[in-house]
Write a structure and sequence with these properties.
A: 443 residues; alpha/beta; Rossmann fold; formyl-coa transferase, domain 3; 2 domains; six-stranded parallel beta sheet; two-stranded antiparallel sheet; 18 helices; B: Rossmann fold; three-stranded antiparallel beta sheet; 21 helices
């Protein structure tokens, strides 16, 4: 069990008592069982095709309680097979299964007249529609925003595509399909990851984030846009079109690249394990893994020097402006010092030293107020073993007769309307009968 | 004849009409006492879509991010990296630890709809402005507590931010190259920005529910959990018992995929997701034989490690024989996913982004022209917008306290004297820009009788 660091203000017995009582209330608040759902009664149609941004957006709305129907062509969505090294569980890939929460699956051929009629029937009843086709494809079939908004003025039409559904450039590039890696590159993420320019190739090349960064950002943005529009509809009764460009995901999410380009006028080089802001700030290799060493303020940096008994470094790196990384060779020098120090200890030793110091520092008015922070870098396998997440129910265990045993993550604790996973499924056309009957569709 | 689709959508999303359209969150008041990025950016997104966001900072010190610029560079006495996290807000100062300060916060919380904080768990409760206290005076409030590890659980007191969250969630361990011993952060604090979008999603769900039922609620969002939500690696791990690890620039869910160098020395990202796209790619590259090859024709067989490796090698060769322009041209014609790797300057000057409104050239009354990122999602009827850039510390004090809380001139003077509220103390990042005459500023020197005159 890790030792806990209490913040400075949590000192008196009275406060502690209040906090433990508050915590009890909190834990009770966060149990989803039997509670209402925020989006109860909202119908979401997800016609995304070979694109996880749409699938993720639909999942998020489904977690919040919307009735979500995934509409697939008879052969199924190609996203089913986007899986690491082609690994399939039952008949689907891992990511598709993981996002298959609280969804109904139907098949419907949009290229067929009858399929389109059925789709229109569904769209008349729907509140939110999510699509990821080439801009103009749905419009050509007569089921785009232009046509559907006439038969259902309250419809919120969420379009996800690489370059969006408007502007001249988007029209010109509209045939380029979406993928996470290319969306990362087009929005400026890989340009900032990788070794320093003077390192050997290809490690100094632009490097992708090792997960679906762009698709998840775009998925959250699309769900957010849908809820903004839903809120507006609640007041005015009007639907609208919501447009997300996945090739803009990273830069629009963080905002840094745009302003950096304007103020500095030149692109940032890749900085390897260094940070653009301060040194030391990052994960350093210790005897048995990697630990975070991060010093935001001067007092934190001094605390780190005291902990490691390296006060001799203080004179050279005394001020914050000594430690900003505008001069890479200087930053590398300090980084190397820290690397050498950290390499002499194990993870647990460092964590213990830091928390001992923090506890003393908090109680003392004379120690300069430094609060050194550390944590061990974990792989997904190690994360699963962490008791903290188990108690918070971050991972839901699923035991399915078809797909076997696996876990899926969920996040966000709401006291009144918590998001939840009611079931996980991915079987193609599984709910055809139920949905076709419920909404009076023709077979 | 039917109008062309793009001319219809260009009209629908016309950027020149943005400021004439309604704001979706008009009338929603957000009290934002958070600092750094995670909390302030959550509030900023709400402000973008029309909420009235009141940002509370500590007198004389301000938000720590006000001075945290890259490489020591400031822009007109302000941190350029602060504006896009804090535009369109009202800036006030309150020292929460003073009893009068606490009272002010509670008064504001009483008339607010959303309350955002991101201090260490338990801190706001100890200060007397936590959910248990605020919900007593305003049961309809949506109270949002943002933190790295969440409000309960054994690690809750562990301090943290972006870097820590990236480390403990697994984000860092899956990024980089398997052959070398180097781990990279995801840059630009994505571990703060991405969860802040998630927080907005939850706040909107809570607002929607409140509109229906009149009930407020408490939201506890751990940023590390949001990062975990974006990894399929946990499911992969429990299905196979194996770790996926790092795969460099190869996305193991798509073959071929990677970042490749072109004949003119540029970097191209390319990923082929479906059989359809693979056929297009093979035709474009003049290698139809690849698509006819049984090992590569089907997506699942393409994804097998040995086939994937071979195909990525072939792709590397193919790309290195063409220029970046040629490849993008082919991608446009044939329809496969490819783009040049964009950097800061290319993104800032991108014509497409400017037309779209995701790069905004904004003229501010105080700071002049500035370029910053626009909304991440575009709404046709209620688009997000930038109303003003950030303001000096305590700039809206008089405006907010007089107009919203009805404080008198004398009461404000008294609060200033006691240090409950305060101003910038002549520090860079906190003070007004060079050459700006703050004494003549009507908002900063807001007087209540002026308002009466207008009426």
């Amino acid at each position: 069990m890790k030792e806990q660091v209490r913040p400075r203000y949590v000192r008196g017995k009275k406060t502690l008592k209040h906090i433990s009582k508050w915590e009890e209330t909190l834990t009770a608040l966060m149990n989803p069982e039997g509670k209402p759902e925020a989006l109860d009664g909202i119908l979401v149609l997800d016609v995304s095709y070979a694109n996880f941004a749409g699938i993720i957006a639909a999942s998020l709305l489904a977690e919040l309680g919307a009735e979500t129907i995934k509409v697939e062509p008879p052969k199924g969505d190609p996203a089913r097979f986007m899986s690491p090294y082609g690994l399939t569980v039952g008949d689907v890939g891992v990511p598709f299964l993981m996002e298959g929460r609280n969804k109904y699956y139907i098949t419907l051929d949009l290229k067929d007249e009858k399929g389109r009629e059925n789709f229109k029937k569904l769209a008349t009843k729907a509140d939110i529609l999510i699509e990821t086709f080439t801009p103009g494809f749905m419009d050509q079939l007569g089921i785009g925003y232009r046509q559907l908004s006439k038969i259902n003025p309250g419809l919120i039409y969420v379009a996800i595509s690489p370059y969006g559904h408007y502007t001249l450039q988007a029209k010109e590039l509209s045939r380029i399909p979406d993928s996470d890696l290319v969306a990362q590159a087009a929005s400026g993420l890989p340009a900032l990851i990788g070794e320093l320019p003077d390192s050997p190739e290809p490690y100094n090349w632009p490097t992708r984030a090792g997960f679906w960064a762009s698709w998840y950002i775009s998925g959250v943005a699309a769900a957010m846009g849908a809820l903004l529009a839903l809120y507006y509809r609640q007041i005015t009764g009007e639907g609208q079109m919501v447009d997300v460009a996945t090739f803009d995901a990273f830069s629009a999410c963080v905002g840094f690249p745009v302003t950096m380009g304007f103020v500095w006028g030149k692109p940032r080089p890749r900085y390897g394990p260094l940070d653009y802001g301060l040194c030391p700030y990052g994960f350093f290799k210790c005897k048995d893994g990697y630990v975070a060493i991060a010093a935001f303020r001067d007092q934190d940096f001094r605390a780190i020097l005291k902990i490691f008994n390296r006060w001799d470094l203080e004179e050279d790196w005394r001020y914050l402006f000594d430690r900003i990384t505008d001069d890479v060779s200087k930053a590398k020098e300090l980084n190397r010092e820290i690397e050498n120090i950290v390499a002499m200890y194990t993870c647990d030793e460092i964590i213990r030293k830091f928390s001992e110091y923090a506890r003393k520092s908090m109680r003392s008015k004379l120690s300069g107020g430094g609060l050194p922070v550390t944590a061990k870098m974990l792989t997904p396998k190690e994360v699963l073993k962490e008791n903290h997440w188990y108690l918070r129910k971050t991972f839901v265990e699923v035991n399915d007769s078809k797909y076997g045993k696996f876990v899926v993550p969920i996040c966000g604790k709401l006291s009144e309307t918590p998001p939840r996973i009611k079931w996980v499924s991915a079987t193609i056309g599984k709910d055809n009968e139920y949905v076709y009957r419920k909404y009076g569709l023709e077979k | 004849m039917q109008e062309d689709y793009f001319s219809f959508t260009n009209r629908l999303f016309d950027p020149s009409k943005i400021y004439e359209k309604p704001e979706v969150l008009k009338g929603i008041r957000v009290l934002d006492i958070s600092h750094m990025i995670y909390g302030p950016n959550t509030a900023k997104i709400l402000a973008q879509f029309g909420a009235e966001v009141i940002k509370v900072e500590l007198p004389f010190y301000g938000d720590y991010w006000r001075t945290a610029t890259y490489w020591g560079k400031f822009w007109k006495h302000s941190n350029p990296l602060w504006h896009f996290i804090n535009h369109s807000k009202y800036f006030i100062t309150i020292d929460v630890k003073k009893p009068k300060g606490r009272e002010l916060i509670l008064k504001l919380a009483k008339i607010s709809d959303v309350f955002i904080e991101n201090f260490a768990p338990g801190t706001v409760e100890a200060w007397g402005i936590g959910y248990s206290q605020v919900s007593k005076i305003n049961p309809k409030i949506i109270y949002v507590s943002l933190s790295t590890f969440g409000q309960f659980g054994p690690l809750k007191f562990q301090p943290g931010w972006d870097l820590i969250a990236q480390g403990v969630s697994g984000w860092m361990s899956v990024t980089g190259y398997p052959e070398i011993d180097s781990h990279y952060k995801i840059p630009d604090y994505l571990g703060d920005f991405y969860p802040s979008h998630f927080a907005v999603l939850l706040i909107l769900a809570a607002l929607f529910y409140r509109q229906k039922t009149g009930k407020g609620q408490y939201i506890d969002l751990s940023q590390a959990e949001v990062l975990m939500r974006s990894l399929y690696h946990f499911t992969y791990e429990t299905v196979t018992g194996k770790e996926l690890g790092r795969t460099g620039n190869f996305d193991p869910t798509m073959v071929p995929s990677g970042i490749f160098k072109t004949s003119d020395g540029k970097f191209i990202a390319l990923a082929i997701a479906t059989d359809e796209q693979f056929e297009a790619f093979c035709k474009a590259m003049g290698r139809v034989d690849l698509f006819k090859n049984d090992r590569f024709r089907n997506v699942l067989s393409r994804l097998k490690p040995e086939n994937a490796k071979e195909l990525c090698e072939i792709t590397k060769e193919l790309i290195s024989s063409k220029t970046a322009f040629e490849i993008i041209d082919l991608a446009k014609k044939y329809g496969f996913s490819a783009s040049e790797v964009m950097d800061d300057v290319k993104i800032c000057n991108d014509e497409w982004r400017r037309q779209r409104g995701s790069v905004v050239h904004f003229k501010d009354e105080m700071y002049g022209e500035f370029v910053l990122a626009g909304p991440i999602v575009m709404l046709s009827k209620t688009p997000g917008r930038i109303k003003w850039l950030s303001r000096p510390l305590g700039y809206h004090n008089r405006y907010v306290f007089m107009k919203l809380l009805g404080l008198s001139e004398r009461e404000i003077k008294q609060l200033e004297k006691e240090g409950v509220i305060g101003y910038w103390d002549n520090r860079v990042g906190l003070k007004p820009p060079i050459g700006y005459d703050i004494e003549k500023d009507p908002v900063f020197n807001y007087k209540i009788d002026k308002e009466r005159e207008k009426l």
